[in-house]
Write a structure and sequence with these properties.
The protein is α+β, with helices and mostly antiparallel strands and 618 residues long. The protein is 39% helix and 17% strand. The strands form five sheets. Strands 12, 13, 14, 16, 17, 19 and 20 form a seven-stranded mixed beta sheet that branches. A six-stranded antiparallel beta sheet has the order 1-2-3-4-6-5, covered by helices on one side. The longest helix has 52 residues.
Length: 618
């Protein structure tokens, strides 16, 4: 498909990837007024796929699995089929697939550093563990078809897994030569042999992904003995040294036959987390984000500009019409609920009673019908299915591209002008502060007379002559039992300490404070004269990480929060990671917290502050 084609109610804005499963687009969800939301659209139009079976699976399972929500999982907002082509739409993730990252690392001869490999593997295992802890009825959610193409690494260094909605329908095509060539090294031998999904399948995949992250090479084809020998001979791609013994053993236990393999993804995650703790490894998303920018700098800068422009695209009246209902694929051979969800396991004895199966089946039917109606698939007779989406009428792709380039150029000029003005204002303010310090020093010298020159501490000199770095002016601790329905008490404003700096001493010679006109709404400030830091209005919801609760772990996470001039959170950072999902959960709480914005001379401004999020099982 081409960009600017319309795929149902989605406008294809840019192709961001293509693999054996199909194409991935940045797409705009078309509403009454135009593009109302930018999404990541996975279109399963690859050769070798059983499209009818996959579409049937998505219709049955997709709506139920939209309940999966975690910072380590892509957020599914829609799934189904259009014109006979299955698709899944996710909340947009600015980043690259792990497959693209590994390929770019090879091209640029910049192997994935050891700590980044640890972080990505730990986050992937966390995502599979979160899904495993999610139950549909009495059964757990498994993936069973994970590959680097379904792992997203965001530009902020976060790892998110995709494909839970489609995995069960993809497994039936795993034996096709094209799919076996593309994904065979990441799928367990049992998957390739067509066996039902099992909780140990994802363990094999975790091992395959981790091996490639560490060594830069895919695991070789062969038996578990061949793979064990490959692990023993492997070296870290970024350091050229042998794999740490504990990690090598973890890999070996991932590749043995199913009955001897590590039991499940949570057990694998627990093992890796323990080794990271014992080895004092502390990888950070900040460093991974920096690595992403080093690999994809130009693409990342261009992407953010393109998205802003794409939101302003004008659509024709024809494009704004509701999309015609999609053709319903032919029903696949009847399959049990357990088969659809891949929940058949060797340890399950005697199967499920007809009553239990009937209850789950009824729930799935309700969920499927609800999802069907919610996504606008009416009951009108469907048109004949076609293999490709129709082209959009209106401006030609060349005209739209020219318009985008013109708008980008205008935006860049406006941004440069705004930055120049902002820096001019900051330089002017700092010059005034320098004059204040110099006059205060002269006054102090006059008072001292012949007793000698005035002396300054390094802190005083720095505060008078340099631009301060962004610092966290205050800290708020969020208790573990904080209720989300009632607003938390406001954090009292800190009382300024008595002035001790010579530059701050009262003096008749000191000029008046900088006028409010030097401060503009939205300026980024730090603590100083005339600055009132942000205050908490309502704390965000706190969700205890499932893996941490299962392991009875507690933690207090410090989150640096950039509070905007409107009191909303713009950005969050975790200076020191706690792992086990604590950092992501704390950032989620911080992002949902609202504030009274900081002010400087009465003008609302942006400012960094700290929140301490405490997770306690008591």
């Amino acid at each position: 498909m081409n960009t600017r084609d319309q795929f149902g109610s989605y406008l294809l804005l840019k192709k961001v990837g293509e693999d054996a499963l199909g194409e991935t687009f940045r797409a705009g969800k078309i509403g009454r007024q135009g593009v109302e939301r930018v999404l990541l659209l996975r279109v399963f139009n690859g050769q070798g796929l059983d499209s009818a079976r996959l579409a049937q699976h998505l219709a049955t399972v997709g709506p139920a699995l939209q309940a999966l929500k975690s910072p380590t999982l892509g957020l599914c907002v829609d799934s189904g089929q259009i014109g006979g082509v299955p698709f899944v739409a996710y909340d947009y993730i600015s980043g690259k697939s792990l497959a693209a990252l590994l390929e770019q690392a090879r091209k640029k001869h910049s192997p994935v550093p050891f700590d980044h490999a640890l972080l990505i593997a730990e986050r992937a295992a966390m995502g599979l563990s979160v899904a495993y802890e999610t139950r549909l009825g009495d059964e757990r959610v498994l993936h069973g078809f994970l590959a680097p193409h379904l792992v997203m690494i965001s530009n902020e260094g976060e790892t998110r897994l995709l494909g839970f909605e489609a995995a069960g329908g993809l497994r039936g095509s795993a034996a096709h030569p094209l799919l076996r060539e593309a994904f065979g090294r990441y799928l367990s031998p049992e998957v390739l042999a067509g066996q039902p999904r099992h909780k140990a399948d994802d363990v094999y995949t975790l091992g395959a992904l981790f091996f490639e992250l560490l060594t830069g090479e895919r695991i070789p084809a062969g038996s578990s003995a061949v793979l064990a020998a490959a692990v023993d001979a492997a070296t870290l791609a970024n350091e050229g040294t042998a794999l740490p013994a504990g990690l090598a053993e973890l890999l070996k236990q991932s590749f043995v036959p199913r009955e001897q393999r590590i039991a499940d993804a949570p057990t694998w995650h627990k093992s890796l987390s323990k080794q990271m703790g014992d080895g004092h490894y502390n990888p950070t998303t900040f460093n991974l984000a920096f690595y992403m920018h080093s690999l994809f700098r130009d693409e990342i800068d261009k992407e953010s500009q393109e998205i802003e422009v794409e939101k302003t695209i004008q659509l024709s009246a024809e494009q704004l019409r509701p999309a015609a209902p999609a053709a319903t694929p032919a029903a696949a051979p009847a399959r049990s609920v357990e088969e659809e969800f891949g929940l058949t396991t060797p340890e399950k004895k005697g199967g499920m009673s007809p009553a239990v199966l009937g209850g789950i089946a009824a729930a799935l039917v309700v969920a499927a019908v609800g999802g069907y109606m919610a996504f606008g698939r009416g009951s009108a007779p469907p048109p004949a299915a076609t293999p490709a989406a129709p082209s959009v009428s209106g401006p030609s792709p060349e005209e739209i591209q020219k318009q985008i380039e013109q708008m980008l150029e205008e935006k860049l000029k406006a941004r440069e002008a705004g930055l120049k003005t902002q820096y001019d204002d900051q330089i002017k303010a700092m010059k005034l502060r320098l004059e204040e310090a110099q006059k205060a020093a002269a006054a102090d010298q006059a008072r001292r007379g012949a007793s000698g020159p005035a002396t300054y501490s390094p802190t005083q000199v720095a505060s008078a002559t340099t631009v301060p770095t962004v610092a966290a002016p205050m800290a708020t601790t969020v208790p573990a039992a904080a209720a989300t329905s009632a607003p938390a008490p406001e954090t009292p404003r800190p009382t300024p300490p008595p002035a001790t700096s010579v530059a701050a001493a009262p003096s008749a010679a000191a000029p008046a404070a900088s006028p409010a006109s030097d401060v503009r709404p939205g300026d980024l400030v730090t603590m100083g004269p005339g600055v009132i830091p942000p205050r908490t209005i309502k704390l965000g919801a706190q969700r205890y990480p499932p893996a941490a609760r299962r392991m009875s772990r507690e933690a207090t996470v410090t989150v640096r929060v950039l509070v905007g001039e409107n009191g909303k959170v713009i950005d969050t950072q975790v200076p020191s990671r706690a792992g086990l999902g604590f950092d992501e959960a704390a950032q989620d709480t911080a992002r949902e917290t609202t504030f009274v914005p900081a002010t400087k001379n009465g003008v609302p401004v942006r400012m960094w502050m700290e929140l301490k999020i405490a997770f306690s099982l008591k």
